Amino acid sequence: MKDVADHLGVSRQLVSLVLRDLPGASDETRRRVRAAAEELGYHPDASARLLRGRRSFRLGVLFTMHEPFEVDLVEALLADAADRGYSLVLGPLGPGRTQQGVIADLLGQRIEGLVVLAAEGGSATLAGLPAQVPVVQLGGPRSTDPVDDVRVDSACGIRLLVEHLVELGHERIAYVTGGDGPNAAERRDAYAAEMRGRGLVPDVVDGAFTEQGGADAAGILLTRGALPTAVMAANDRAAAGMLSTLVRRGVRVPEDVSVAGFDDSSVAALPYIDLTTVRHEPRALAAQALDAVLRRIDEPDAPVVTDRDVPELIVRSSSGPRRPDVTRC
Amino acid sequence: MKDVADHLGVSRQLVSLVLRDLPGASDETRRRVRAAAEELGYHPDASARLLRGRRSFRLGVLFTMHEPFEVDLVEALLADAADRGYSLVLGPLGPGRTQQGVIADLLGQRIEGLVVLAAEGGSATLAGLPAQVPVVQLGGPRSTDPVDDVRVDSACGIRLLVEHLVELGHERIAYVTGGDGPNAAERRDAYAAEMRGRGLVPDVVDGAFTEQGGADAAGILLTRGALPTAVMAANDRAAAGMLSTLVRRGVRVPEDVSVAGFDDSSVAALPYIDLTTVRHEPRALAAQALDAVLRRIDEPDAPVVTDRDVPELIVRSSSGPRRPDVTRC
DNA sequence: ATGTGAGAGTAGCACGTGCCAGTGGCACGT
DNA sequence: ACGTGCCACTGGCACGTGCTACTCTCACAT
């Protein structure tokens, strides 16, 4: 910055004013300063700004780049945070990058708050972290600490799907679980309750929040005697794995079996998957998470809140009317 | 840091020495300093370190979180850079985050070099950037500027696949292109040359580097009279889209048609895709890219290099012997 | 003549850290 | 008694920026 100032024979402060669009410089000077900055390839130093500034307006995000829905959430967070004048410091977990290490890294970056994503998978804990920095969980539970929490209303989503399938005439509706992943137990229980509430018999198959989990569950279903007429999976990835495996084995979807997912992640919209599912709006979830963490920055001792975002039913071609019962002699 | 020092009644510098593991402090003091830092929840401020340090040991990465193979590369880069004592600043492109904006952001973060990923998709330019910071392209061309470039040897990968299919008895081998994406033309031409070199007739179908592109190409193939006995796609995503579409339409893979991809991204290994493909080792590519960018930091005027990583054939269940010709009367 | 106010620009400190140049004490050899 | 060297530790400056307080000039009204 000093180079730019010297190059024009003005003071460094004047350059600072111009580049931050503050009043106190004539139009002519503004023009010359901008031109000189461009010419010299000057870029303001974020470290120095951060060091000087009283606040950083930075938030950390802990997530996994391999989870498509987490990526959607991060992109929504990036856009929304930018609108609010905050920037995000990304903390991707991965091999060799443990939660503990990434968090230490983020804390060294002057973050004012932390958004922890755990839509699917992952099993780390946040013990003691809220004492160091305001934290909000987005998408699923990772700790038993009292932490602000934004997630999808699983019960509501399950109800929408069961309702949809029942309206199509289905009664034998199976459910593939998410194993011991986050939200898995909650969704499984919601399914069982919803089925019983309608006088139907729950049929739970163990699975996981992955394509492999769905594929394995499909294998289990196929080795049993009769297939159910509809299957719900704990998330879209499992549903996609299940659907593709069924199709490969000659089962027609939706003529023989209807399949439903959960999340409306990008995989659900693929033309050859085209999955009936429930949609969580990433922008809405992101906005709620930012509301929560910014509120906690203002009022560190506010009571813990739990927001449940209401999902929306998305009907695609993987679900259809129950197949007619075949009468065997 | 001063708080920690005051808390123990020592100087700030001593705390600094201890936390950086430098000599000049007794073991007893080390223990007490670490305990006090832990107790007060102190984390060294990266901004201040960066500001003070003569070098930043930071590299920027420009990429897209939605491309699975780019995510694999970024994870490999993260691990390898850490081993070399560098840290990465992630610059994810996305809606509302243009290449220009992200680059400006990275340049403000004191990066010493920039790795630009473009494995698939994306079509931005790096005009003039190399003058500001050392740049290396990883995975594909984004500019016509003379820039260090690390990518896969497309011709070699194509040759491996054609060879594999020919050994299985295939002669009518179609190729689904990557549209106008990076590397698309190069791979298509390599395919055509390889086919002609073996006395076979190239059969090129327009596609794209996406599932949708592969699905569309499958539609085109199905409306033509006779299917080829094998189809190669420009990347795994297109191959997955094609394969799933074919299966849905009753075509058996590999009995009726063999399918091959390109990349060995995570989608290729899914149990119900199980795609024959060529593998690019992300760790090898990442290491070469880091070699290139670090070399250019040391010698800004070194001649531009182009590294081609040799891929490896991965045979899975999507490819098999040519189906016997059916004699029709 | 003198105050008033605004516009354009400048001076200096502070942010948290790393590095260089010290300072004091202690043991040892002459 | 005195230098020499080592160990444990401390003082002060610099990094690039933002903020507050200040100066200077010019126009205009009193």
Q: Can you describe this structure?
A:
- The structure is a homodimer of 329-residue chains.
- Chain A is of the alpha/beta class.
- The first copy, chain A, has helices at 2-8, 12-19, 27-40, 46-52, 68-83, 99-107, 154-167, 184-197, 211-223, 236-248, 282-298; strands spanning 58-64, 87-93, 113-117, 135-138, 148-152, 173-176, 203-205, 230-233, 258-260, 277-279, 306-309, 312-314.
- Chain A has a six-stranded parallel β-sheet, with helices on both faces. A four-stranded parallel β-sheet of chain A has the order 7-6-8-9.
- In chain A, helix 5 (68-83) packs across helix 11 (282-298), helix 7 packs across helix 8 (184-197) and helix 9 crosses helix 10 (236-248).
- The model of chain A has no long low-confidence stretch (mean pLDDT 92).
- Chain A binds a DNA duplex (30 and 30 nucleotides) through helix 2 and helix 4.
